[in-house]
Amino acid sequence: MEVRRVTIKDVAEAAGVGVATVSRVLSGGSASPETRERVLAVAAQLDYRPSALGRNLRQRRTGGIGLLVPDLTDTFFGQVAEGVLACARSAGEPVVVGSTGDDPEQEAELVGMLLEQSVDRLVAVPSGGAETWLPVTRAGMTVVFADRLPGGPADDGLPGSTADLMLLDGIPARPPARAVADVPAVLADDRSGIRTAVRYLHGLGHRRIAFLGGPGHDRRVAAFREAVGAPVDEELVVFATGSRDSAYAAASGLFQSRPDLTAVLAAGNMLGEAAVLAARELDLRVPRDVSLVMYDDVPWAELCSPPLTVIAQPGRDIGYRAAELVLRGTGRRPRGVTLPTELIVRGSCGPRH
Amino acid sequence: MEVRRVTIKDVAEAAGVGVATVSRVLSGGSASPETRERVLAVAAQLDYRPSALGRNLRQRRTGGIGLLVPDLTDTFFGQVAEGVLACARSAGEPVVVGSTGDDPEQEAELVGMLLEQSVDRLVAVPSGGAETWLPVTRAGMTVVFADRLPGGPADDGLPGSTADLMLLDGIPARPPARAVADVPAVLADDRSGIRTAVRYLHGLGHRRIAFLGGPGHDRRVAAFREAVGAPVDEELVVFATGSRDSAYAAASGLFQSRPDLTAVLAAGNMLGEAAVLAARELDLRVPRDVSLVMYDDVPWAELCSPPLTVIAQPGRDIGYRAAELVLRGTGRRPRGVTLPTELIVRGSCGPRH
DNA sequence: CTGAAAGCGCTAACAC
DNA sequence: GTGTTAGCGCTTTCAG
User: Fold this and answer.
1) Which of A35, A151, A204, B154 has the greatest number of CB atoms lying within 10 Å of its CB?
2) Distance CA A253, CA B248 (A)
3) Residue A335 and residue A172: Cα distance in Å, rounded?
4) Is the pLDDT of residue A223 over 50?
5) Could you tell me which residue ranges the HTH lacI-type domain spans (chains A, B) (predicted)?
6) Which B-chain residues 162-221 have CB contacts (< 8 A) with chain A?
């Protein structure tokens, strides 16, 4: 059943040359036109495929790149993944994917697995903080973060002094350690996206705007705080964990504890989904009773009624660019790239009532 | 920068034993308790990770399993992928993922890449027909299909004689070649799902029910034809290619060419999305003017208004079971498994008007 | 119970 | 130009 693979030796024998010659020909080295032709012909005829295992082992190089996302069921991360896969394919590189469930432990475990596979280039939407990522970069992995940055070790969501922290897009990123802070990242311009949304809501007359966030939305809260200006009503800032249940609970709790809020900004599409559901359950009409802006322009945003006003970020591009960075080895110039967001106004926001 | 990996040799030296001993200890072989302890200690201290490359090369075994899906942006396939990843992780196996875009050519290319990586176990939602898959199985790959079966070579969607074809779930699957027909598959019980939905619509008084399908929905049309019984109005059976645009065009065209239809069955969530959009664009009210049943119970189905009545199939389970099968080597007894579907009635269907 | 040695498929020196 | 050879890190006989 297990058909023995055709090896370079087989090709060499069949072509009446040495293995080195075959290797050279196949990797575009020098060879007499005649030999080259013969080898190529034989290789094709035998349907020879060089074993990546052998090659990688010999070259002590990695095969492929790794991709870690929190949840492939989330359309946005699906977009990111598609971007990474597209770029990797065009480079002929395989992609080993892992889903972390937004759990630092699973994330660490998956990284270990990648290391074992000699995959030393990684695109990650990080869940864990510096304590997870410091060892990884130190292990010699080339990593590029996508969509978000690792949170600080003490992830209380409430950065204390924001004064002497490194600024990325002007948002305190609380770089937990030098090495991790130097990891390039491909991010959406959260600051501008959130600011635009908040201004839009302001313009509509809203004053009590809630923020509904999830894991990894540190930069977005920070941007929210900045955009709102003045002291933020802390009760209006709530966080869920990664699950749908948790998102729903957070949204529902928010609406019930603060019936006076007039608008909510959901920092991710799962949060947005939860907000719509919770609002409906509580007989809150959108946008009459409450206005809603959601992060991520997923296809179904348009199907809601009313269609959801969203902050669109280019998931696919984020993935593609991250893969590009990691593939080109991120030569010095580690600073990553920031992609634009866009406020797409549909029907889920109205004037304050 | 590139830190040399700790190899088995390093561990052996540090522990004052031979490499063979280290290997044995780490793979649970025999060794004196004392030696074992020492080796384990040293390995842990050095943070030694055996290289999968070396191991796999030596054992001429594959590392990991492959996963090929049409599009990770489609929530359903995201669920399937999550299932596969979950199973693979619990088995400690890495997963190499590829997105085919429902294009047989890309699919073939990706399979080639997997072969090169020595990945010889594959879970696939197939796009190509027998001509793609026959060579693959013959190359010695262990493959398990998920969610659908490869279509016939002449994929006209209109099987001619259904008499002497192999029946799977009683649906003509048009097995294009012995080898491919023997590939195990994990499928949802499309036949029952579709039948239930059609009966439900019948019960509501609908007689002109349209079928909106996409790539890989051969079994579903077949089930539709069977459920409707009698000769089906062929104008009411339309197919889109994989893209969202195509789906929209198909849906829109259907509504316009046959304004007399009263219900539509969308064979996948992207088709359902398109149907909702097209209906809205044409000022068709759901369910007053047209009833809609969609395949796949994606989270947003509930967010639509009215919430969509769906045929739910367990995407995650499908992926998980498929991975299980491919991991346990699918010992003889290739027949796969069929998982139940469920009609979830929400608000998108009403009595015929 | 343990070590030495042979190779898995490949590439990169190094000879010819 | 082309062949020979020495490993890459690992497991697995085969002796001791």
Assistant:
1) A151
2) 38
3) 15
4) yes
5) 6-59
6) none
Would you call B95 and A98 a contact, using CB atoms and an 8 Å cutoff? yes
Q: Which residues of chain B have pLDDT under 70?
A: 1-4, 153-178, 330-334
Chain A residues in contact with B303 (beta carbon < 8 A):
273, 276-277, 300, 303-304
Q: Is the pLDDT of residue A63 over 80?
A: no
Q: Which amino acid is at A50?
A: P
Q: How confident is the model at residue A166 (pLDDT cuts 50, 70, 90)?
A: very low
For residue A92, give Cα distances in angstroms to A95, A201, B110, B113.
Answer: 10, 46, 9, 8
Residue appearing with tokens 């870690």: A68
Closest CA to B350 of B226, B224, B201: B201
Burial class of residue A9 (count of CB atoms within 10 Å of its CB; 0-12, 13-18, 19+): exposed
The Cα A62–Cα A85 span in angstroms is 17
What letter does residue B96 receive in the DSSP assignment? E
Per the DSSP assignment, residues forming a β-bridge with A40 are: none
Half-sphere exposure of A130 (CA within 13 A, CB side): 14
What pTM was computed for the model?
Answer: 0.91
Give the Å distances, CA to CA, from B188 to A88, A294, B181, B220, B269.
31, 33, 17, 10, 15
Distance CA A218, CA A152 (A): 9
Pairs of residues, one from chain A and one from chain B, whose beta carbons lie less than 8 Å apart: 151
Among the listed residues B228, B214, B186, the one whose alpha carbon sits nearest the alpha carbon of residue B334:
B186
CA distances from B240 to B153, B253, B292 (A): 18, 11, 17
B72, B109, B117: residue with CB nearest A63 = B117
Taking only the tens place, the pLDDT of each residue in B58-89 is 998 887 999 999 999 999 999 999 999 999 99
| A19 CB neighbours strand C below 7 A | yes
**Which tokens hold the place of A263?**
């608008």
Nucleotide nearest to A58 (CA to C1'): D8
Nearest-CB residue to A73 (from B78, B119, B303): B78
Smallest CA-to-CA distance from A120 within B163, B2, B166 is with: B2
Measure B297 CA to D9 C1' (Å): 47
The answer, for A33 touching chain B at a CB cutoff of 8 Å, is no
- Tokens standing for residue A160: 């204390």
Torsion, Cα B95 B113 B8 B35, to 10 degrees, reads 40
What are residue B266's DSSP bridge partners?
B212, B294
- pLDDT tens digit string along A328-351? 876 666 678 999 999 999 999 999
Q: Tens of pLDDT along A130-144?
A: 999 999 998 889 999
CB A236 within 8 A of CB A261: yes
Residues of A230-268 as b/e, b for ≥16 C-beta within 10 angstroms? eebbeebbbbbebbbebbbbbbbebbeeeeebbbbbbbb
Which residues in B198-221 are b (16+ Cβ under 10 Å) and which e? bebbbeeebeebbbbbbbbbbbbb
Extract the tokens encoding B302: 């509930």
